[in-house]
Amino acid sequence: MRIKLTQTQEDALRAFLDDFEDAEQLSTREYVVDLYDISRPVSLDLVFVKGGVAVDGAAELKYDAEQDGWYMGERLDSPEEVRTALAQAGALPA
C-alpha cells in the first residue's frame, strides 16, 4: 500500500524516523519503526517513494506479560490505519 504525502509531511516523517529511538534505517529510502506509545502499537516497514511512502509491512504489536515482550499481531490493511498511527506518534504534521 502507498500513502501520499506532501513534501512537508515527507520531510517531517524522515526527520522523525532519523531521530526516533525505535526506528532503524535499512537503506537511504527504507526504515523499520516500532511505535509502542500510541493507542494501537504497530510495527511498520516504510519505503520513501516519489510522492509519499510505500508500506512494505504493517502489523499491530501485542504485549505478552508472561513473556515480558512484544509480538506481531494482526496486519494493518489500510493506508488510513498507518497514517493514524504515524499521526498519533507525532511523525506527521496535521
Protein described:
- Strands 1, 2, 3, 4, 5 and 6 form a 6-stranded antiparallel beta sheet that branches.
- The chain has helices at 7-19, 79-89, and strands spanning 2-4, 23-25, 30-35, 42-49, 52-64, 69-75.
- The chain has 94 residues and is an alpha+beta fold.
- The protein contains 2 helices and 6 strands, in the order βαβββββα.
- The mean pLDDT is 95.
Break the fold down into its secondary structure elements and pairings.
Layout: E1 2-4, H1 7-19, E2 23-25, E3 30-35, E4 42-49, E5 52-64, E6 69-75, H2 79-89
Antiparallel strand pairs: 1-5, 2-3, 3-4, 4-5, 5-6
Which whole number gives the mean pLDDT? 95
Percent of residues in β-strands: 35-45%
Largest sheet: 6 strands, antiparallel
- What sequence of helices (H) and strands (E) makes up the elements? EHEEEEEH
Question: What is the CA-CA span between the terminal residues?
Answer: 21 Å
Helix content: 25-40%
Q: What's the total helix number?
A: 2
Number of strands: 6
Q: What is the alpha-carbon Rg in Å?
A: 13 Å
Low-pLDDT parts are none
